[in-house]
Amino acid sequence: MDEIGCRIHVLAIPYPLQGHLNPMLQLCKRLTSKGVRITLVTITSARISVQNQFESIQIEYILDDDNIEAEGSNDSEKGAAHFKRIQIAVSDNLAKLVEEKASSGHPVNIVLYDSMMPWILEIVQGQLGLKGAAFFTQACAVSAIYNHIHRGTLKVPLETSTILLPSMPQLESNDLPSFVYNPGPYPGVLDLVLGQNINLEKSDWLLFNSFDKLENEVVTWLTERYPIKTIGPSTPSMYTDKRLKDDKDYTINFFTPDSGACLKWLDTKETGSVVYVSFGSMSDLGENQMQEIACGLMNSNCNFLWVVRPSEESKIPRDFMSETEERGLIVNWCPQPKVLSHRAVGCFMTHCGWNSTIEALSLGVPMVTMPVWADQTTNSKYIVDVWKVGLRVKASEEREMVTREEVERTIREVMHGEKASELRSNALRWKELAKEANSEGGSSDKNIEEFVSSVESTHSLS
Ligand code: UDP
Q1: pLDDT (tens digit, 9 = 90+) per residue, 19-65?
Q2: pTM, to two decimals
Q3: Catalytic amino acids?
Q4: Is 367 inside any structural domain?
Q5: 304 CB less than 6 Å from ligand 1?
Q6: How far, in Å, from the CA of 24 to the mean position of ligand 1?
Q7: Number of domains in the chain
Q8: What is the domain extent for residue 317?
């Protein structure tokens, strides 16, 4: 134990995107409850908001100038440049940070790094002589698909339109992550996501934001090959097991949540009457698609709370808000777990980012799925066909987008249709299982405890 009684000191390095930061921060909060000291490294320009109320989590900043505009003429080039800059920033600063911690009397025992940055392990093990744990912020099913490609048991370009992989349901090609069936727009990204496989044998621990009962078969398949541990869901504790009293929100935000307004507004609505709509922190839907969603929401006759980030606002039809004032509220960002757990929310229209998916599952909210890219397509497949907690809107081939009629039809179906009560009762079952995983002695709680104990014993032996 160190001087304030911490068992070990973990230096955590999340990839600096909202969907990667949230689950890493949440894992860190859980680790503190096991007596772990945390240094969380954020790689950032100055625009994030931090409300850290956890005494044993210290935040360190590695500054990144974030001058994306200067670095490429398209999204793919900008993405690659962003990645490179992060690699340079971490490589230049990590050793110094670890040294500073040692000289302040709190030597780092292990570096917990986002699996999207596998090169960190080389620095950690090779240069710093420390142990490293990779943290995967995607579904185990998605990791398994990438692993099949890495092993050559799934060939890209795909050779068939129907894919059969062990421990998974039959998949159509477009149920796979979009980088696999359509690498065209982002040629470098497939290499990047496949890169997560290169450390599976070398990393000292492999932690996944999922829970055993949610992905039972694929967890077994992975466990037979690699020493993985599921530690999720990373949804704040006060919405699952309620053991971390201060854990109600994500406390590092790239956008400022409009908490007061939307919760007050939800309070005025009837139970189960609101469709909560969000496409996460990155999606960039076309203007026509945004208009179809707006009209679909209007025609559904349901109340709706829609998160539209500032960069997307201009895509909303001009008179939309005045025409739907009674029934709708648009905010730039909200405290999503608080919203999803509000009694007024009846369903979640989502892009199926993994965090949104696992939050909705662990809060018992049925979904209307509208995957856009990346692993969202695979998450949607599981939401609809495996966990049976949602229905997917189908894109019109002719118009190459999801029409307002389809948005309206699917929302009505999930809110009040024939399947509504089945979806809701399935969702409530997952909510119970998520709570069980996080509760004392549950699968994820045990895995976190085992992880800490094994780092502790490695440390005391060295
Ligand atoms: N989120 C939030 N407020 C919002 C919208 C999203 O706090 O208004 C959070 C959400 O709870 C989730 C994360 O942002 O934890 C988004 O991650 P996800 O994997 O769902 O999607 P991504 O942004 O990575 O596409």
Answers
A1: 999 999 999 999 999 999 999 998 876 567 777 777 789 999 887 66
A2: 0.96
A3: 20, 114
A4: yes
A5: no
A6: 13
A7: 2
A8: 259-433
CATH of the domain at 164: 3.40.50.2000
Q: Is 136 in the pocket of ligand 1 (CB under 6 A)?
A: no
**Is 336 a pocket residue for ligand 1 (Cβ < 6 Å)?**
yes
Pocket test for ligand 1, best of 239, 247, 336 (most atoms within 8 A of CB): 336
Q: Is 462 part of a structural domain of the chain?
A: no
- Does the beta carbon of 236 sit less than 6 angstroms from any atom of ligand 1? no
402 in the same domain as 355: yes
Give 293-327 pLDDT, tens digit per residue: 999 999 999 999 999 999 999 999 989 989 988 89
**How is residue 314 written in tokens?**
């201009």
Same domain, 29 and 81: yes
Are 225 and 272 found together in one domain?
no
Which of 25, 311, 340, 356 to probe ligand 1 with, by most ligand atoms within 8 A of CB? 356
Q: Is 307 in the pocket of ligand 1 (CB under 6 A)?
A: yes
Note whether residue 184 is domain-resident: yes
